[in-house]
Write a structure and sequence with these properties.
Blueprint lengths: L2 H10 L2 H16 L4 H7 L4 E10 L5 E12 L5 E8 L4 H17 L5 E8 L7 H15 L8 E5 L5 H15 L23 H16 L8 E5 L3 H12 L3 E7 L2 E4 L6 H11 L9 E3 L1 H5 L5 E4 L18 E3 L8 H9 L3 E3 L1 H4 L2 H15 L5 H26 L3 H20 L5
Parallel strand pairs: 3-4, 3-5, 6-7, 6-10, 10-11, 11-12
Antiparallel strand pairs: 1-2, 2-4, 7-8, 8-9
Helix pairs in contact: 1-4, 2-4, 2-15, 4-15, 5-6, 7-8, 7-13, 7-14, 13-14, 14-15
């Protein structure tokens, strides 16, 4: 078997991708989808693999592996983040790209699904090395991206500065400024107000809806947040501002617990200075694993995928789970938790705030007309709560859990669009 064929088979076996495709198959059964459509949705359109040589600070040259997967463009140009992490592989990127396709469809956005990444530990790079890595990667995937083709954004290990370097590199190579090529940029070069905290804010908007459906209130509720990066810290902050009690948080250094509630703005300031929650004195140490099992009203898994599986699902005590990360709860675990009466707001809804405001940024760049933050937040709330409501109605009508319902709503829109566009050539 040829090497590229082996690689294709490998990425199709990745658990994140398998989990996503299981959801697509289940969604197809719920809406009685055309099996030809389901077959098409189970394969990515294009997988781009590039070598990224970088001259390091010690003058040696290291070659990193970079990826960009363009999964499906039925609804519009590809859209999805760029991830810098030591565990990035083609299979993971394919899985994440498929989730972006489903999320964009569910949110009603004019986007297909894409995702990218580089296999690298960004914490071990100097600023110069990270910039060189980003610029070379952008140059390598340059022929495949563009404001009307594929619009990257930040993800794990990347940020607004990374997007600024990408935008500048692409603009230099095309000969003029093209702010619409990426989203999540700094405000000064075409970024949008509200983009940095959008995913966390969207998760809190979804949490408010989930609490409402459970006959509970976010105000006074106990919450544990696993992962205190961009998504987790902003979700914790916005929930804290609405009167919730954040009793536990965690990051790569471990976790913190305080039954009386943590002062989230104080913790964020500590992290700004110290780069992690380690050393924060107003809480007792707790492991990431134990945090997931706390008896709280709501659990926000906002780190990486696959942290709640059939192995620990029975031990989960939270009444509500808001998936701030991509794929933190597996399908098997979802079924166990649903039987236990746990309300899960799935990732395709709960962490959709980032791509929604990325859409707003893209539109503002195209129009060269920018909105104020209150308008952006109100538009975000309207879109994400509408996606929640559509999914909830589907869940009630079909007697399925929220993940199955959200996927069914998403696949239904994709099916309609694919049937309208037809198959080329016939």
């Amino acid at each position: 078997m040829a090497q590229d064929s082996i690689m294709v088979e490998d990425h199709l076996r990745h658990p994140l991708f398998q989990n996503a495709m299981q959801s697509v198959e289940e969604a197809g059964k719920i809406i009685n989808a055309d099996p030809n459509i389901i077959n098409r949705l189970k394969k990515p359109k294009r997988c781009i693999i590039v070598s990224v040589p970088v001259r390091m600070d010690d003058s040696t040259v290291k070659v990193f592996s970079g990826y960009r997967v363009q999964y499906n463009s039925t609804l519009g140009p590809y859209k999805g983040g760029i991830r810098y992490h030591q565990d990035v592989c083609l299979g993971e990127v394919v899985g994440l790209a498929s989730l972006m396709m489903l999320k964009n469809s569910l949110m009603g956005l004019p986007y297909g699904g894409g995702k990218g990444g580089i296999t690298v530990d960004p914490t071990k790079l100097s600023r110069t090395e990270k910039q060189n890595l980003t610029r070379r990667y952008t140059s390598e995937i340059g022929p495949f991206i563009g404001p009307q083709k594929d619009i990257p954004a930040p993800d794990v290990g990347t940020d607004s500065q990374t997007m600024a370097w990408m935008m500048d590199t692409y603009s230099q190579e095309t000969g003029y400024a093209q702010p619409g090529v990426v989203t999540g940029k700094p405000i000064e070069i075409g970024g949008s107000l509200g983009r940095t905290g959008a995913t966390g804010l969207g998760a809190v908007y979804v949490a408010e809806k989930a609490f409402e459906k459970k006959g509970m209130s976010l105000k006074g509720a106990t919450i544990a947040v696993q992962g205190f990066g961009n998504v987790g810290s902003h979700a914790a902050l916005y929930a804290f501002e609405r009167g919730a009690k954040i009793v536990a948080i965690s990051d790569v250094s471990g976790g913190l617990f305080n039954g009386d509630g943590l002062n989230i703005p104080d913790v964020i300031e500590h992290v700004r200075i110290n780069k992690s929650i380690a050393g924060y004195s107003r809480g007792q140490k707790i492991s990431n694993e134990d945090l997931l099992l706390l008896d709280v009203d709501a659990l926000f898994p906002c780190a990486l995928e696959g942290v709640i599986t059939e192995k620990n699902a029975e031990k989960i005590k939270a009444k509500i789970i808001i998936e701030g990360a991509n794929g933190p709860v597996t399908n098997d675990a979802t079924k166990i938790l649903h039987k236990k009466g746990v309300f899960i707001a799935p990732d395709v809804i709960a962490n959709g705030g980032g791509v929604v405001v990325s859409y707003f940024e893209w539109v503002q760049d195209i129009m060269s007309f920018f909105w104020d933050e209150s308008e952006i937040n109100n538009r975000l709330k309207g879109i994400i709560t509408k996606a929640f409501d559509r999914s909830y109605v589907m869940a009630q009508e079909k007697n399925v859990d929220m993940r199955q319902a959200a996927m069914a709503v998403s696949v239904e829109r994709l099916q309609k669009a694919m049937l309208l566009r037809g198959l080329y050539p016939r």
